[in-house]
Amino acid sequence: MKVILRKMSRYFRMGRNQSEDSPVISTTSSVNDTHLSPLRQTELSLRYDGKLLTRSEIHLNETKFSMLLTKTYFTPIDAMKVTAFQSVCQRCHYGGKALFAKIPCARCNRTHLYCRNCLHMGRIMECESLYYWSGPSFAWPKHHDVLSWQGELTTPQQNAALKIVDTIHHHGELLVWAVTGAGKTEMLFPGIHKALQQGKRICIATPRTDVVRELLPRLQQAFQFIHIQALYGGSRDNDGTAQLILSTTHQLLRYQHAFDVLIIDEIDAFPYHQDPTLQFAAKRAVKRYSAVIYLTATPREQQLRLLSAKKLPHVFVPLRFHGHPLPIPKPIYCSSLNKQLSENRLPQKLLDWLNHRENPQRQLLIFVPTIKLSNQLQSVLIQYCTREKIIKKNSELMSVHAEDKQRENKIKLFRKRQIKVLLTTTILERGVTFPEIDVAVLHANHEVFDEAALVQIAGRAGRSPTDPTGEVIYFHEGKTNAIVAAVSAIKKMNRRGERLAGEKE
Ligand SMILES: [Zn+2]
Ligand SMILES: [Zn+2]
């Protein structure tokens, strides 16, 4: 409770200094009880308004909780809808068969269903309830002049930013299709600022944890006086009570009708694009009147169809913020590549390239298709790179993947240039920016490298105005459709970008 009080005092402080309104609860619900002081009610509504939680996620003792249930401040719903034909988990809306299992339950002494689809959020049992806050809603403060970002938007960025502001104002939907390195985070700032001025609650959700981690310091710098929370598995400041929230799309499963503005970054990324339960969570997380903004550099078929049917308004940003074209990937054929990699040998063409890069000072990201390969190749690459003086010591080359406990730290070290070469799986394909790097994809013909992944990976290079080029090499053993499509998509974007730049001259 101390934490809540600290937060409350922060909100009140903001209310005095920067806000038009204090964070008072609306008076539409009946609050004429003698047991809850107005401050206590405000604390509770701050903590629980817009959430959908299990009992164990509501940190109140039984007496207080029962009292709030009686007063209908909390409303219970069954955790699962079970009929003779189908069971549907009410937290994640999974309605298939494969991910329901049965176990004996100590609470009700029956053997019954639990949902494995949302098990990562804590087990949810058939006999449980979920609770949403139905008490007085929390009125978020209105903040003025809280945009501390001093930068300037380019004309295409400005154009997108205006559409975002307009969409937020009119509770609409918008797809922002911006090439990698277009500076889409900055395009969001005016919209977020506007929403904060209007006392709205905002969430930027993305399928990738690393993207959440990357966005937090940038957002925090742009809105220095706003309390921002980042929610992902293992995050610390994670009670989800901030007005501006960054979140993985998984964490949206704990929200219901919470946000006035939901921005979904990397809409086309795994797992969101192929997981209907996450898409459901996003829909449920917004209020009835809300704005939803999707961001992508590589829209999928599903979004392209909506665009061509004119069912989803969109804005296109085909130019990087520094005005230089996207680096065009170079596919290089390596015979027996798969065999060599499985025998832990590095293809000669990779070694040749490592020794003859245009700018050997650049850091290097080497993408591999599997965790096994990233672990396996690390020592042979270290041996080669130390011998050839590409790295000075072993610790300058590391591998990283989704299950790596050191993942966050290794990305930090790469950012600080203490790691020069990083072998990675597709976890770093998108949403991360390193200023001066070359990129190689090893076994680019592997099925994990679809068109979107290859375009995103290529988009890691040349992001800095001081080094806007960077090499991108796809080492493959036979061009796939994805490789061909990725190269052609990048060239097409560059042509559109050039046309746009030409129009302005
Ligand atoms: Zn039970
Ligand atoms: Zn579930």
Written account of the structure:
There is one protein chain. With 505 residues, the chain is an alpha/beta fold. The protein has 3 domains: 132 residues, no CATH class; 163 residues, Rossmann fold; 175 residues, Rossmann fold, CATH 3.40.50.300. Strand 5 and strand 6 form a beta hairpin. The N terminus is likely disordered.
Quick overview of this protein structure:
The chain has 505 residues and is of the alpha/beta class. The protein has helices at residues 2-17, 38-48, 62-70, 155-169, 184-197, 209-222, 276-285, 301-308, 337-342, 348-355, 371-387, 407-415, 451-458, 481-504, and strands at residues 52-54, 74-78, 80-82, 87-89, 100-104, 111-115, 129-133, 173-178, 202-206, 228-231, 244-248, 259-264, 286-296, 314-317, 330-333, 363-367, 397-400, 421-424, 437-442, 472-476. The strands form five sheets. Strands 10-11-9-12-13-8-14 form a seven-stranded parallel β-sheet. It has a six-stranded parallel β-sheet with strand order 15-20-19-16-18-17, sandwiched between helices.
Question: What key attributes describe this structure?
Answer:
six-stranded parallel sheet; seven-stranded parallel sheet; Rossmann fold; alpha/beta; disordered N terminus; binds zinc ion; 505 residues; 3 domains
